[in-house]
Amino acid sequence: MSVQQDALMKVFDACWADDGFKARLVADPRMALAEHGIDPPADLDFKIVENTDDCVHITLPRRASNELSDAELGQVAGGYYSTIAKTGARSL
């Protein structure tokens, strides 16, 4: 389980154990998440919904972008560039 998934499971556990916390999460998700050490980006919005016995919510994930952001490019950049033409010789 990832750190993010583990943190969210703790939030879910708190909701099931404490109706007051659940009410705070619904009313002010950012504040309630902060109580559990979760500090999401300021420009991220939340919509808290709860499944019931007769209603299950299905969340569609956002469509993946085929382009990397500058930050993502910085994380994967590496290697080297060679100006030597490939001649069939063994590479080092």
Oligomer: single chain
Number of helices: 4
End-to-end distance, in Å? 39 Å
Uncertain stretches of 5 or more adjacent residues: 86-92
Computed Rg: 22 Å
Secondary-structure content class: mainly alpha
Describe the overall structure.
The chain is mostly helical and 92 residues long. It has a domain at 1-50. The chain is 40% helix and 0% strand. The protein is built from four helices and no strands. α1 crosses α2 (19-27).
Helix and strand topology:
Layout: H1 3-17, H2 19-27, H3 29-34, H4 70-76
Helix pairs in contact: 1-2
Kindly list the characteristics that best describe this protein.
disordered C terminus, 4 helices, 40% helix, extended, mainly alpha, 92 residues
The gist of it:
This protein has a domain at 1-50.
